[in-house]
Amino acid sequence: MTDDRYDAILARARAHALDYLHALPTRRVGSTASRDELIAAFRTPLAQDGESPESVIDLLAAQALRGATACNSPRYFGFVIGGATPVSLAADWLVSTWDQNAGIYVISPMVAVMEEVAGDWLLDLFDLPRESGVGFVTGCQMANLTCLAAARHGVLRRVGWDVEADGLQGAPRINVVASAESHITIDVALRYLGMGTKCVQRVESDAQGRMKPDKLRALLDTLEGPTIVCAQAGNVNTGAFDPLREIGEACNAKGAWLHVDGAFGLWARTSANARTRDLADGIELADSWATDAHKWLNVPYDSGVALVKSREDHRAAMTSSAAYLIQTQGAERDAVDWVPDFSRRARGVPVYANLRALGRAGVADLVDRLCARARQMAAGLAEEQGVQILNDVVLNQVLVRFGDDDEMTRRVVSGVQEDGTCWLSGTNWQGKAAMRISVSNWATSGEDAERSVAAIRAVWKKIRG
């Protein structure tokens, strides 16, 4: 006898999913429904006896085209958001089907091995120390937290303090140094770790948002005791990289732990273009690295990766144990030793699937194509009168200003969102309003870029009058 309760409902969900995916290339990118309209569609008294599974799935699917922003559209350029490749989406469906708790090896040997192999592949692709620890987390927020937890453990261990056992009360004070342009997730991680944000000493950055290494060296000369330096590979606005080799050498000379936030910039290491790879020159000198897979690798949300050179510091900062657990004592890998959470989705599986399907050349092509699309959009917009590109387009980020005026720039951003051809967001860069274009989707073609540029220029011309 077979259990056919899954058959009809999964077939229905598949049909709805395909309808949604097939509409992506042509549909309006932004959502159209208001909060009130969505509340009206979803809010109802919870029924005593429930509703049919089919009607629930139909309701969800019916609201998606009007209520969901098409973040996986090839013309979505907001924030830094990739779109799941077909193989990674299919792998993620299998992850839900298997419903594995990936916390320890004994629960799911298959997932543990896939994540171990995927971690090895990533270290090889990024050309980072192969002995490094790897943890699959929700995103770069938790990747930064994991790496900085390892850093906190490591720098205090060197001075004889066990922070996991004794906490921070009475511990030697840790110096934390970061760029003036560091991402907010660094600050949040420091809050979660009990070090706070007032401990951060900021280093001046240049016009592209790169940390000035001479200013860092001067600051390090004034510091004594445990020190953590946070650098950046890929500024969230400009895409610029801190001068990582100089920073790494300065940190190594002073015995400081260097952490690199490479949410999307770390993927420059996989490029076939020497100029792009050289942006991250010296990154291997760091002690830890954080990145996202749901950005440039284009796997489904949520998927971040924490990498730490010292496996001992990484494991000591994360591991937990209990009498009821069956934890490995051998070569098998327990994920709980490398990440903050225990019960967790097998998020390393789509990473494994996508890497295996793409191979080295496919990953390099993905990175290089999107860099080319960013340059294409920047060039197309720069041809228009009154349009200024504010950054050196070295990666996949483009900052645009219209009429050298804050209000006009914000109006263009709003007008483009309303038009619906593409979707992008605004930002504030060094005191000026700007449009921020992030090209992160595997499916974005030259035609998508051209069509989006035309729509942006048309909105600007209308506003300019």
Automatic annotation (TrEMBL):
Superkingdom, taxonomy of origin: Bacteria
Cofactor(s) listed in the protein's UniProt record: pyridoxal 5'-phosphate
A GO MF term: transaminase activity
Ranges in a coiled coil: none
InterPro entries: Aromatic_deC, PyrdxlP-dep_de-COase, PyrdxlP-dep_Trfase, PyrdxlP-dep_Trfase_major, PyrdxlP-dep_Trfase_small
Keywords: Aminotransferase, Decarboxylase, Lyase, Pyridoxal phosphate, Transferase
Family: Belongs to the group II decarboxylase family.
Protein name per the record: Aminotransferase class V-fold PLP-dependent enzyme
Source species of the chain: Noviluteimonas lactosilytica
